[in-house]
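debug: dumping io for the single-chain case to check the tokenizer round-trip. Nothing else runs in this session.
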Amino acid sequence: RTGPERGADLRMDLTIDFKEAVFGTTTMVNVPRIEVCPVCHGNRAKPGTAIKTCPRCQGSGEVHYVQNTAFGRFSTIRTCEQCGGEGKIIETPCPECAGEGRIRRRREIEVKIPAGVDNGFRVRVPGEGEAGLRGGSPGDLFVYLKVRPHPLFQREGDNIILEHPISFVRAVLGGVIEVPTLEGTSELKIPEGTQTGTVFRLRGQGVPRIHGHGRGDQLVRVKVQIPTRLNAAQREAMQRLAAAFGEDIPEDKGFFGKVKDAFGK
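debug: decoded output
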């Protein structure tokens, strides 16, 4: 006899923001799925009508066949063809589901996304898959996540990476700057003589560890910006600085001066 059958699992893809992946969120998703018929509640018969025991198998869902051969008597058991193995006959099917016991609908389902997820992470929502057959339990819904890139931050494991520009004056003299974080801003001390590519660590300002405690760090990689244009006062100041460091910076002779030097005149 055919018994209860578990419903199928469902899969859907969901794109979330970078900060939602870091800190977690709760969202609603619209899922097309097969549900138990709300009119007949899955028994497939029109409400108020009778469900009869199959007269052929007497409700067992199986039919015994006996065959006499020259080698003796053989007995076989087959699924009842009249009731399909269910042991009952529905004379008046439910008009809502056409006697199927299930209907297809779209349903808004709440999905709780934990903090610290990343691309490809799978969230399981138990019991929100398709309805089972003959009283079987429903399947599960599996939501696969895709994380949108952030315009400032990148992620490496549980760490957040930020490339932050600083002026060459700040790199030389040092000082305190403010850098953006996922939760606002944070002060960062820049020591004197900082070089491009130097990485500073803001502890505990990274991604929460999804399978552990605490958070990763934010790594700030500085990029020293060299000015491409200087006014007269800035150029003079730089020349004095060069002289203080013992560097000989020749005066710019201009285009015609360079031509004269090239021809030895």
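debug: round-trip ok. The chain has a mean pLDDT of 90.
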